[in-house]
Amino acid sequence: MRKIALVNQKGGCGKTTTAINLACCLGSRGRRVLLLDLDPQGHAGLGLGVRPDQLQETTYEVLLGEIPITKAIQSLRENIDAVFSNVVLSAFDQVMAGIEGREYKLKQCLNDIENGYDYLILDSPPNIGLLTFNGLVACEEAIIPVDSCSFSIHGLGKLIETIRIIEQKVGKVSIRILATNIDLRTRFSRHVVETLRAYDPTKCFQTVIRTCTRLREAASQGKPIIEYDKHCAAFHDYENLTEEIFSQEAEMQMGVLRSEFDLEARDQVRKQTEREIIFTLEAPINVSVKIAGDFNNWMPQALHLTNFPDRPMWQRVISLKPGSYRYKYLVDGQWVTDPRSDATVDDAYGGANSVIHV
C-alpha cells in the first residue's frame, strides 16, 4: 500500500480538497483507496457528504486502540473507503501526553489493512502536532500543498525541516510540493509557481491546481469534482495530478528511484558544477543580518559577523550553480539591496531585487 500524507501547518491551502479529489480520481482509475482524516475539523467528511457530528466510530477511537481500524472504515464509492474524524479527535494530544510511542499509534493501526488497499490518502490538521507526526511516521510520502500566499512559501522551509527531523526516527519521507489555488492570469501567482519550482524542481509537481469556483461549489455539495463537473479546470488539474502520481508508481515498479550510490554520484557532479559565492554586507554589529533569494526559496538565512579590522562585515557562503539569481538582504526586519552590486530587477511589490550572475 502506497501511503501519502497531505501536510501543511497553514490552513486553507488545499490539503483537504486535494486529499478528497486525489482519492476519488485514483479510485476512478481502478485503484483501491482508503481516505483517512486526521483533522479534528472533520472537513474530509463534509466534503464527501458525511456529517462529522453523526459519526460513531472515528479516527479517534482507532488511534486509542478502542476499535480496530476495520470497524471504522466506511465504504463510500466503488474503490473508495474512508475513516472520518470529528472534534473529539482534538483531545488526542492531551490523552496521549507522556505516553511512550504515541507518535507510532497510526502506523500500528495500519498493519491490519496493509494489503487491503493500493493507496492510503491521509488528510492532516493545519499544525505540526502529534496528529501530523503520526501521519508522517505512518507514510512514506508527503504532498505539501502551497497556495498563492507569501505565508505559505515562508512556512515551507520550516515544514521540510520538521519532516527531516522525523526522518531521523523513521527513515526517508519522499516530499513533493503542489501549487494550489493558483490564478495564472496574475503576475503574483505566476511568481509563486516560479518560486516553488526554483526551490527544487525535482520536488515540485508539474501540475498546478488552478483557482476554480466549481471546486468550492462541489465541496459545499459534499461531492468530489469528478462527480460535480468534469468540464471545469479543477477536474482536469486533479486528473493531471493523478497521472503524475501514476508516473511515480511506474518508476517505483521499474526500480528507477535513485539508490544511495546514485545520490552520491549526483552529489559529486553537483560539487563540480557549483561555485561557492561569498555574500558580504557592511552593517553594525548589534543588528540581525539575513539573506534571501531565488537560491533559498526566499527564506531568510543568517549571515555571520566576521573579524574585519576596520569595519563590521557580515558574510555567508552559498554554493550556486551557473545562472542568474535575485536576492536581497534583511537587516533588522528591513529589506535592502546589495550596495556592492549595481545589477537590480524590479520585484513584484514596487521595489527592486539585487541580481548576481554565476
Structure explained in plain terms:
The chain is α/β, with parallel strands linked by helices. The protein has 2 domains: 2-257, 3-Layer(aba) Sandwich (Rossmann fold), CATH 3.40.50.300; 269-357, Immunoglobulin-like (Sandwich). Helix content is 36%, strand content 26%. It contains 13 helices and 17 strands. The chain has helices spanning 15-28, 43-46, 59-63, 69-72, 92-96, 105-109, 130-138, 150-170, 187-199, 213-220, 225-228, 233-254, 260-273, and strands spanning 2-6, 33-37, 74-77, 80-83, 119-123, 141-147, 174-182, 204-210, 275-282, 289-293, 301-302, 304-306, 313-320, 324-331, 334-336, 344-346, 352-357. It has an 8-stranded mixed sheet with strand order 3-4-2-5-1-6-7-8, sandwiched between helices. Strands 10, 11, 14, 15, 16 and 17 form a 6-stranded antiparallel sheet that branches. A hairpin with a 2-residue loop joins strand 14 (324-331) and strand 15 (334-336). Helix 1 (15-28) crosses helix 12. It is globular and about 70 Å long. The model has no long low-confidence stretch (mean pLDDT 87).
Structure keywords:
6-stranded antiparallel sheet; Immunoglobulin-like; 358 residues; 2 domains; 8-stranded mixed sheet; Rossmann fold; alpha/beta
What's a quick, concise take on this entry?
With 358 residues, this protein is α/β, with parallel strands linked by helices.
**Overall morphology:** globular
Q: Strands of the biggest beta sheet: in what spatial order? A: 3-4-2-5-1-6-7-8
Enumerate the spans where pLDDT stays under 50 for 5 or more consecutive residues.
none
For this structure, what is the CATH homologous superfamily of the largest domain?
Answer: P-loop containing nucleotide triphosphate hydrolases
Helix share bin:
25-40%
Q: From the coordinates shown, what is the CATH architecture of the largest domain?
A: 3-Layer(aba) Sandwich
| Whole-angstrom Rg | 23 Å
Q: Kindly estimate the percentage of residues that lie in beta strands according to DSSP.
A: 25-35%
**What is the chains' assembly state?**
single chain
